[in-house]
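In response to reviewer comment 3 from the previous cycle, which asked for concrete evidence that the modeling workflow produces usable outputs, we include below a single protein chain processed end to end. The sequence was submitted unchanged, and the resulting structure tokens are shown without manual editing.
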Amino acid sequence: MKHFLLLLLLGTAATAPAIAQDTTPKKTLQQQMWEFAGYEEIPVLDEEECDRWIDDTKNGYLKFEGCSAPCGCDNGWVIGAYRKADGNYMFLSYGYDVCGQNYAMRTNESFEAILPPEMDLKYFYKQGAVIDTARAYYSIYIDIPHTGTETVLYFSPAPIGCGIAYSDKLQFEIPSNYVQRVCSDYYSECQHNLSTQYSNYAIREEIILSMKKLDLVNLTNEADKLRVLEQMMQAVKEGSRYQGKVPDSELDDYRECAEQVMDYLQAVYLESTKIAIRSVVMGWDRKAGRFYIKETNKHVLPAEDYNYKGKYSLQEYKNFLDFLDYAPLWVINC
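The workflow returned the following structure tokens.
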């Protein structure tokens, strides 16, 4: 009987259909990360070039820093690999182009799938705060670590002047085409009527100088605003430090522009006072394949210590004048 059973089992095994096996060699983590970066093949890195590469893909980290862009502007990107329980990886990248004023994050999945489930736009605001729907004031920046998976997320202020169209979702990109809208979104359409282009930077600096001369740190009412405008007009009639002398024929247009810029800056500042969470330390859950919240507001830099590569610290400004002094601002410089 024992011999019969053995023969039966062997016969069954012999007649079972063969299972096709995938003979395609599995790509290495290095190959996967370079492909995610946009390269079909791993490039040969020239150490003599000024561009800087860090290929530590064995530890899930790949970084590029460019130095050959025009105007001396920096550009680059960093990619992190986060291993999941099934052996696959979630890739997360952050890229910046200072000249193009483009900052963007990417993932091979969706941000909704990898971020903590409770993290939506309202998560960062104070309870009960009314979110201004005129434009998106903030975007997400994630500091990708070289080692480990503990990741810091910043609720980062979009630089003044970018004019991102409003969305009730978190923003993960500041596309470069928005720099073309600085004139209309920041220092207003009225400037196109002026023979001299008064830059957003110069107008903001004139507001700062006028507020300091009047010993004002906030514009608490319409009277304060009018006092600052009058001080600005007096300065540009005589020839101011940043704006120079405005021709008499353009004074009315200049005042209109200055008022619109002031109103815009005040709106951005007031929106910043509604924010409760400015940074989040996140851990990586391999089993769930997504981040989870560990702690908040641990990594908030001083106002004057922001990073021009797109990583802007969002702090609670002391007052409107402090905001004007340190809020990140985009200008076209070449």
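Residues 29-181+276-326 form one domain. We consider this sufficient to address the reviewer's concern, and the full set will be provided in the supplementary archive.
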